[in-house]
Design goal:
11-stranded antiparallel beta sheet, binds glutamic acid, 7-stranded antiparallel beta sheet, binds arginine, 51% helix, 31 helices
């Protein structure tokens, strides 16, 4: 018995060593450091390219096919004529803008059948990275002399402006310079931003958003989450403002698309612009997130979502008004729930504590280290203690108070009142009032006061009841007493008396202000409450929050240096900060729960299974899709009578990676990233290789929808379709001419069938 247990223990220890050394799929790496840090590891895992093929400033490389799409998503070039592939949810705003009741592209999809039908999108940009550079020395010049973090930051900002200017003067390029490792290092990205980006195609929401919020953050997934745009350029292929004379942009590289698909353990690479991660937080910070912030924010959004759901179900008008707001509230809400589950499952807090103990031991073993890092852990503890009450106050103000649309909206009037109070010139006051007048229509179009009133009653109730009374703004504390906890009564009073609950009321206040009658705003009950909460935040919460975070930034900067010295053999990657990164891993299934195994891909069959659940509106599908399924009319995109839809892989991704290409060992496009699995959302804080998966639309499903569903085969013809062992490299790709689907069809089918047989045989052998 005992020996058995010991054996199991040893086996487990072995296994964990094996796992951690064999699969460090964690990391979002800097393109210019791939050669030094990752090339050999990537090649060991199957990559057939060199680091220079992925990122180079001397030759065209994969990076020339990647753009930051609008600054919030990623996109990739997939044709020599500037065709851009991204997610449906990334282009959603544009599709919505072009939609009307007569031309409802959200519902029906949109496909430009020729270039003249492509739709311009003022304000939308696509940014390429020309090159990147380590500018740490220049940016930190003189920073050592600073006595405070604020002083240091001021010096750095001055340097950033100067270095950026010097690098771009006389060019049409931009410069982005950001801190890495909490300001230990600085890198500059030279950017080229195109401004004429036109909508080319988007599937109907029933494909592009299939599964909606029901499936969001979940695997198995069946969403055709893609859309197509095109970059247009002025003379010389350079960026230009929109003009009908602009020409399709000719990219230095576009990704060839693989028809050979994926199999388990295939190498994968995700190239894109991840937004924000916090991988080096101490146990104190994670404890706060896990025990305090996430539960509070989840609870508040839970309450709000239930109220919105109810009203949206009861009225179509409200449903449309709140569709986008609901989706974005639900997106983060669901993510936090998954994050907490993942943190618990991976025992992250304990693991961080272990690391901190190790660090302390290492520090104490050497007098110089002791001097440098000796008080670090106590300082961390002290500073996080100082956030007691501050974090929770801030969470409730952001989520509960500002979660009430009226409060948030009324806070936007603070500047106007300030101008009035400070007796600013009437012209200035009028200008501000006119700005608010212009914004009013947009706000009230999607605002339903009766719904918001219910949200007010519930959320002010949570604010009052959940927090220690001494953390509340005076106005909320006294309201609790005055209304004896009956916040519905308080809501009735505020909403019936405030002018800010309707466009007419708001405009009346603004018209009065312009005419010199200024008491309306000051006496408005919604404005009074909003103002009280806002000034409480600014005087009681923000100062501590800011100063502690300044301290923490310095502590983390020191901690990073310490960790990197202690773990000489470990390769460190900086937290995501919306700059271009490479993540790599492999196509891989996972076990979400004890006793449950998830496959690594899904097919059209699964869409039919979900569509059969007629009571879930998120699973309604277009008739044409069913027809194609019934006829098994998959063209060269299906495999053995199956149509692949989505797949998962162990790439480290986060928000902003939406639309990023998933690339195979040969540099070919195999999918477009659009989400993470629920258990894996914890990877913003700590990566767990057992659980973290990114979710991508299979490129073949994209092709199938464009070609077979939408009948937009002319777009597929523009693309470069390839099979297994063709190189995805720029040079080769330029030589290889575009093949049409027709040419590929028969040959492909035979080839894919052969491959599938081989795979089956292999699988049988393994078992
Ligand atoms: N979870 C994905 C992301 O963070 C997709 C969000 C859009 N989809 C949705 N059903 N709300 O952006
Ligand atoms: N849907 C996310 C985005 O819009 C990507 C998913 C994630 O956070 O990993 O960027």
């Amino acid at each position: 018995m005992i020996s058995k247990r010991i054996f199991a223990f040893i086996a487990a220890a072995f296994l964990s060593v094996g796992i951690s050394s064999a699969r460090p799929d964690e990391g979002m790496w800097l393109p210019m450091l791939l050669k030094q840090l990752n090339e050999s590891d990537m090649q060991k895992k199957g990559l057939k390219l060199s680091a220079d093929d992925i990122y180079s400033v001397n030759q065209s490389s994969l990076k020339d096919a990647i753009v930051s799409f609008g600054g919030f998503c990623t996109g990739e070039m997939i044709s020599s004529e500037g065709l851009l592939l991204t997610n449906h949810h990334c282009g959603f705003g544009q599709v919505q803008q072009h939609s009307s009741v007569e031309n409802d592209y959200l519902t029906n999809g949109f496909w430009a059948m020729n270039k003249s039908q492509e739709l311009p999108n003022p304000g939308l940009t696509a940014t390429f990275i020309v090159r990147m550079e380590d500018v740490t020395k220049q940016i930190l010049a003189g920073a050592d002399a600073a006595k405070t973090e604020a002083e240091r930051e001021a010096i750095i900002q001055k340097n950033i402006a100067a270095v950026g200017k010097q690098a771009t003067t006389g060019t049409h390029y931009g410069a982005v310079i950001r801190p890495y490792f909490y300001g230990n290092e600085y890198y500059m990205y030279i950017t080229e931003t195109y401004k004429d980006i036109r909508l080319v195609g988007a599937p109907p929401s029933s494909i592009g958003k299939f599964g909606g919020d029901t499936d969001n953050w979940m695997w198995p997934r069946h969403t055709g989450d893609f859309s197509l745009f095109r970059i247009y350029a002025g003379p010389n292929n350079e960026p230009a403002e929109y003009s009908p004379n602009n020409k399709p942009y000719k990219p230095k590289h576009h990704l060839p698309i693989s028809l050979s698909g994926i199999k388990e353990n295939d190498f994968t690479l995700v190239f894109g612009f991840p937004g924000r991660t916090n991988e080096y937080l101490t146990s104190h910070a994670i404890e706060e997130i896990y025990k305090v912030s996430n539960p509070a924010k989840i609870k508040i959004r839970d309450t709000k979502l239930q109220l919105l759901d109810k009203d949206m179900k009861a009225s179509d008008a409200v449903r449309i008004q709140y569709a986008a707001k609901h989706a974005s509230i639900a997106n983060a809400w669901k993510k936090w729930i998954g994050e907490n589950r993942g943190l618990r499952k991976a025992n992250t807090i304990q693991k961080k504590k272990e690391l901190e103990r190790q660090f302390t031991t290492w520090v104490n073993a050497d007098p110089t280290r002791k001097q440098q890092y000796g008080n670090l852990m106590t300082e961390f503890e002290k500073n996080y203690k100082a956030l007691d009450g501050i974090t929770i106050s801030r969470d409730y103000i952001m989520e509960a108070a500002n979660g009430i649309e009226l409060i948030r909206y009324a806070t936007g009037y603070a500047k106007l009142q300030q101008l009035i109070d400070s007796k600013a010139p009437q012209a200035e006051i009028t200008a501000e009032a006119e700005k608010l007048e212009r914004a009013a229509a947009g706000f009230f179009k999607d605002y339903n006061a009766p719904t918001d009133r219910k949200v007010f009653a519930a959320l002010i109730g949570l604010y009052y009841n959940d927090l220690d009374k001494k953390l509340l703004p005076e106005a909320v504390r006294t309201a609790g007493t005055k209304y004896k906890g009956d916040f519905a009564k308080m809501a009735d009073e505020v909403y019936s008396k405030s002018n800010l609950t309707s466009e007419a009321g708001a405009k009346k206040i603004l018209a009065d202000v312009k005419a010199g009658k200024t008491t309306g705003l000051k006496n408005d009950p919604a404005f009074i409450l909003a103002n009280a909460i806002d000034s409480h935040y600014k005087t009681q919460v923000l100062p501590t929050y800011t100063s502690v975070n300044d301290n923490l930034n310095l502590l983390y900067r020191t901690y990073m240096t310490g960790l990197r010295t202690m773990q000489q053999d470990k390769k460190f990657y900086p937290d995501a900060n919306s700059t271009l990164r490479v993540a790599y891993g492999k196509v891989e299934p996972y076990e979400p729960l004890d006793g449950v195994q998830y496959n690594y891909y899904t097919t059209l069959e699964g869409i039919m299974e979900k569509a059969a659940m007629t009571d879930v509106p998120d699973y309604v599908i277009p008739a044409k899709l069913r027809e194609l399924y019934e006829k098994k009319d998959y063209g060269p995109y299906g495999v053995n009578g199956e149509m692949p839809v989505a797949f998962i892989a162990s790439n480290h991704t986060t928000g902003g990676n939406s639309g990023s290409p998933v690339i195979n060992a040969n540099g070919q496009l195999i999918g477009t990233n659009f989400d993470r699995n629920w258990e894996g959302t914890m990877s913003d804080i700590a990566y767990n290789p057992d659980q973290v998966r990114n979710i991508a639309v299979d490129a073949r499903y994209m092709l199938f929808i464009v070609d077979k569903f939408a009948g937009a085969g002319h777009l597929v013809k523009e693309m470069t379709l390839v099979t297994d062992n063709t190189s995805g490299l720029p040079q080769v790709d330029a030589r290889k001419k575009t093949e049409t689907t027709k040419e590929l069809s028969k040959r492909e089918k035979r080839k894919l069938e052969k491959a599938a047989k081989k795979k089956k045989k292999e699988a049988a052998e393994v078992n």
